[in-house]
Amino acid sequence: MPEGLKTLTRYTIEEEHRHPGSSGEFSALVNVVATATKIVANQVTRGAIAGSLGTMSEPDNLPPTVHRRLDAITNDIVVAETQWTGHLSALLSEQMPKVRAVPRTHRRGKYLLAFDALDGSSNIDVNLPVGTIFSVLRAPEELLAEDAREPAPLDFLQPGTEQVCAGFTLYGPATMLVLTTGDGVDGFTLDREIGAFVLTHPRMRIPEDTSGFAINAANDRFWERPVRRYVHECLDGVNGPRGRYFNMRWVASLVADTFHILTRGGVYLYPRDTRPPARAGRVSLLYGANPIAFIVEQAGGAAITGSERVLELKPEDVHQRVPLIFGSRNEVERIERYHREPDEGPSFDRSLFGTRSLFRPGGH
């Protein structure tokens, strides 16, 4: 390890020392989650090999399944590495239809863990970046009493402002861990020579202004007018109302686009749309939008659903999905203003190809 770099273990211990009376449980939990993501990183680098290996026992002693998908394998890794530690009372994930209580055979702790073990798993086949997203909440007091009840979905239905920690791991050319505990955002790189995450991106900040945005342009016809207005103004470039050129990109990996915005700035849009069946949004709130919004805000950016701050939403269901727009603060605030005035602004051409479109009706 290069001289002067700080490991995640040292980082979390030093953070504990800044808070007299800390039990050490939280820093231990962070390191346990980091260990789980290192194991996931190893599986991801094996790609299709890991996704089609032999048989593995399903949770709850169900019969083994052959050719398990990699997202199911990684989900089991996170569960297996975290539920025995004594730091958690329950877990929630993309892959589990119900809240999973820590077994009575293990000591239950004062935290809840919500996670997506393999965000962007559809990218595995084409070898694009994927990642793990996680959020830590405090367990209600009644889960910690001697006569504690069983954990329930209601325990996880806390607004994002109640998160005590959020982070994601990006499995790309390097394995990166990005973390916030409510006091800024720090980025760590996995040093495979020593098997530890080391601090490489301290105090990450998102520039307030940007000339880049990420959106799936193929869904243009389904967007609501405020989003179409914003995107078309950007595409009009130097001749449009924004007076400058913008770049557009879309990786279809939330963690990859988030890391890009954290390091270079930009705006990510996965907005509400009108595709059937009608749904309010496509990004999971508890283990997607909330942890990403927490990180983004702590890095100086903003995160909204369109007209609402993500972190202030009161969850209604553990697998609730919402629209998600986040990134450089000034651009996000502009998009929020457009949602407050949906009928304002000049008329604009619906086609992404504008006046150059081969499909634009003649005479217009």
Automatic annotation (TrEMBL):
GO terms for biological process: fructose 1,6-bisphosphate metabolic process; fructose 6-phosphate metabolic process; fructose metabolic process; gluconeogenesis; reductive pentose-phosphate cycle; sucrose biosynthetic process. Its EC number is 3.1.3.11. Residues 206-339 form the Fructose-1-6-bisphosphatase class 1 C-terminal domain. It catalyses: beta-D-fructose 1,6-bisphosphate + H2O = beta-D-fructose 6-phosphate + phosphate. It is found in: Cytoplasm. Substrate binds at D119, G120, S121, S122, N216, Y268, L269, Y270. InterPro entries: FBPase_C_dom, FBPase_class-1, FBPase_N, FBPtase. The keyword Metal-binding applies. It holds the Pfam family FBPase_C. The keyword Cell inner membrane does not apply. Pathway: Carbohydrate biosynthesis. Its main location: cytoplasm. It is an enzyme of class 3 (hydrolase). Keywords: Calvin cycle, Carbohydrate metabolism, Cytoplasm, Hydrolase, Magnesium, Metal-binding. GO terms for cellular component: cytosol. One of its GO terms (molecular function) is metal ion binding. Residues 6-202 form the Fructose-1-6-bisphosphatase class I N-terminal domain. Homotetramer. Belongs to the FBPase class 1 family. This is Fructose-1,6-bisphosphatase class 1. It comes from Nocardia puris. The lineage of its organism: Bacteria, Bacillati, Actinomycetota, Actinomycetes, Mycobacteriales.
